[in-house]
């Protein structure tokens, strides 16, 4: 046997190891591997090792397969990794197969639908806030309308904490507007406290056409000390963690979870939110659930909009009708700022920052009498 002859020659030490490997027609790496594997009491240790998986779908006992299929049927939108994590988290009284084996079982049992591979858009290249801690960045959106069994449209409003993936709000409505979004946010802020940043897309009611893309809703957020942050148009992946939750919600809706009335749909949304936060393990959280990671914000809120304290000597201008200020001429800012005060602060020769409640919205060039947008 070549391998055993090589081991004997190597132990004898009659020639250098490199020369010995050349003599047997093997690389030094292979030679070291044979030496490492060799066990004097077990000549079979030199045989090639099997690359077959430790567990195989066809060797898993029927009772374990039954448990797996029942769990999958209960959670049809959970994949093999998530199912395995759930079983490990709940310390079941049977050996949990590998995720690949679970996947093979699900395919064999006809529980894996065919799906097309999606081409992903390149990642974010804009300076969005880097998410480092809980309640630093929340994301809000309307998921997208769908018809209830009554043919009425449902527009779910959703709100998540980006760090923990905790689903803070999932509310059913028959419309998308500022009043409903503010109602949902108000409820979340009162119960959970305030985030530092609220990330959204560029649609209504989150954004407008004036400076900094302000809307009535984002002006209210700034007054609460929350910085609105918008992703680039056409780049939903920049709100990727929130979009991932939306995919889970959409997948769950497909499995017979669309109802007749808004009230019935809301009851299911509440059930989905409870399961998403406290039952569904998350790979990015090491198998933990969002509810095991998340905690309320240290920035509590009493429901009142605080009065902003401007610096002493600040040059203040009130935003008048049609969203303009008068600084020698009418300068349009945003109709969302109607009735609010902004501050002009000198920065460079002839250039002033336009500041609202501590947030720089744009710059004004007095020489050209024009706005320099930074959004």
TrEMBL record:
<feature type="domain" description="Integrase catalytic">
    <location>
        <begin position="123"/>
        <end position="298"/>
    </location>
</feature>
<dbReference type="Pfam" id="PF13683">
    <property type="entry name" value="rve_3"/>
</dbReference>
<dbReference type="InterPro" id="IPR012337">
    <property type="entry name" value="RNaseH-like_sf"/>
</dbReference>
<dbReference type="InterPro" id="IPR009057">
    <property type="entry name" value="Homeodomain-like_sf"/>
</dbReference>
<dbReference type="GO" id="GO:0015074">
    <property type="term" value="P:DNA integration"/>
</dbReference>
<dbReference type="GO" id="GO:0003676">
    <property type="term" value="F:nucleic acid binding"/>
</dbReference>
<dbReference type="InterPro" id="IPR036397">
    <property type="entry name" value="RNaseH_sf"/>
</dbReference>
<dbReference type="Pfam" id="PF13565">
    <property type="entry name" value="HTH_32"/>
</dbReference>
<protein>
    <submittedName>
        <fullName>IS481 family transposase</fullName>
    </submittedName>
</protein>
<dbReference type="InterPro" id="IPR001584">
    <property type="entry name" value="Integrase_cat-core"/>
</dbReference>
């Amino acid at each position: 046997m070549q391998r055993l002859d090589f081991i004997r020659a190597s132990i004898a030490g009659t020639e250098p190891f490199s020369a010995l490997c050349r003599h047997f027609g093997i690389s030094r790496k292979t030679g070291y591997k044979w030496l490492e594997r060799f066990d004097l009491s077990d000549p079979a240790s030199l045989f090639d090792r099997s690359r077959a998986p430790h567990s195989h779908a066809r060797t898993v006992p029927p009772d374990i397969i039954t448990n797996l299929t029942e769990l999958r049927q209960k959670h049809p939108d959970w994949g093999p990794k998530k199912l395995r994590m759930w079983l490990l988290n709940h310390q079941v009284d049977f050996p949990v197969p590998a995720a690949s084996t679970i996947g093979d079982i699900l395919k064999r049992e006809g529980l894996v639908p065919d799906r097309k591979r999606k081409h992903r858009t390149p990642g974010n290249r804009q300076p969005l806030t880097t998410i480092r801690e809980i309640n630093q960045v929340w994301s809000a959106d309307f998921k997208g309308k769908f018809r209830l069994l009554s043919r009425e449209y449902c527009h779910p409003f959703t709100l998540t904490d980006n760090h923990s993936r905790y689903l803070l709000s999932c509310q059913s409505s028959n419309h998308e507007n500022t009043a409903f979004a503010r109602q949902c946010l108000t409820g979340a802020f009162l119960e959970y406290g305030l985030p530092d940043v609220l990330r959204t897309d560029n649609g209504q009611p989150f954004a407008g056409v004036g400076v900094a893309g302000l809307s009535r809703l984002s002006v209210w957020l700034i007054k609460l000390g929350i910085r609105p942050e918008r992703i680039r148009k056409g780049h939903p992946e920049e709100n990727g963690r929130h979009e991932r939750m939306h995919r889970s919600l959409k997948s769950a809706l497909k499995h017979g979870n669309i109802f007749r009335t808004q009230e019935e749909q809301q009851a299911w949304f509440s059930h989905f939110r409870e399961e998403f936060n406290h039952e569904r393990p998350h790979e990015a959280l090491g198998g933990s659930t969002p509810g095991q990671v998340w905690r309320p914000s240290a920035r509590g809120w009493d429901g009142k909009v605080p009065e902003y304290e401007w610096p002493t000597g600040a040059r203040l201008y009130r935003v008048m009708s049609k969203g303009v200020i008068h600084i020698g001429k009418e300068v349009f800012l945003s109709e969302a700022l109607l009735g609010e005060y902004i501050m002009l602060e000198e920065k460079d020769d002839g250039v002033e920052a336009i500041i609202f409640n501590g947030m720089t919205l744009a710059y004004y060039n007095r020489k050209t009498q024009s706005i320099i947008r930074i959004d």
